[in-house]
Amino acid sequence: LAKTTQPISMDSYEGQEVNITCSHNNIATNDYITWYQQFPSQGPRFIIQGYKTKVTNEVASLFIPADRKSSTLSLPRVSLSDTAVYYCLVVLTSGTYKYIFGTGTRLKVLA
Amino acid sequence: DGGITQSPKYLFRKEGQNVTLSCEQNLNHDAMYWYRQDPGQGLRLIYYSQIVNDFQKGDIAEGYSVSREKKESFPLTVTSAQKNPTAFYLCASSRPGGETQYFGPGTRLLVL
To answer: CB 3.0-4.6 Å disulfide test: which of B12, B49, B60, B82 passes with B68?
Structure first.
């Protein structure tokens, strides 16, 4: 059964690039990785999703290496408002679908 | 957010009481989900439904029940069998497969 591991917390300064890694073993070729942002007492908000190589949208990039044992969320030039908890979600698509959230990374952006 | 509503925002439960949390979506999504989040912790899946009149247990289904009579609605009942119900409950919906789930604002359940 796949497990997802994330660093518990990270600090960064405004304007820096932040990379948050999610380690996940035993995922298949078509299993998706999705990243969410959550502020206190709110529902998680979708950031980006992919299942291979690199995906980029207006707010982030997602890198998935060939071995698919990890994925990295990259936030360019963070601001104070990016202070939040970031979760990866792995969706296992073989047989019965399984939804596995990571334990979350608490990002604190400093001025 | 984004077409998913949860009510109430706060809910209080007395010992031995069943309570029902509401989740409605107008995104025309087939799949819906319930998660539990304890303070400082990640999300754990309680139940999910990929289609009307069908649902599956998640990782922590004991003490909870659900129904899916309508596509837009997926209520969660926290029964008296759930001995530690205090948590933040999140509902989500998605297209089939669930790779991209959209979450509601959550309901915080407290025990009196």
So the answer is: B49
